[in-house]
Fold:
Amino acid sequence: MNNRGFSLIELLTVIALIGILSAIGTFGFSQYLVKSRIASQTRLLYGDLMEYRTKALYEKKKWTFKISATGYGIYSSANTTVAPVKTITLRYGITSDNTDDIIFDTKGLIHFSSGISDMSLTKSACVSSENDAVVDSVMITATRVQVGKKTGVDCAAATITTH
Structure:
């Protein structure tokens, strides 16, 4: 008998094992990809907030963020009835704990469009769905912008652990 090469059963077994391992790997990679995209989206919002806060401080000009469920617009004044300077559409929907716009004044401080100037007010914006991403929310107070991870389904500031 000539024992050169592999039998058909051996080849089929190896192909089946490769298929099973690649299916498991694809599922794990897609989960990793979603977590990475959510964290990237959160950091994009955080980065834009910090950039325009700095611009407000150095340019002595008000900047306004109007956050919606699908993205946000950046306005070059407190007037949000005009076209935004920059519009960002987000892949994953976001929720917020209140509907106020975020206004950076000429000192780099944050005000909300409701006009209430209480320093303890906060606004948070979170990715709508539950996820395993490292960061999925941004918490905004009068003097600070922080990224964090929400611990429940609710997007309230009390449920966000900041980093």
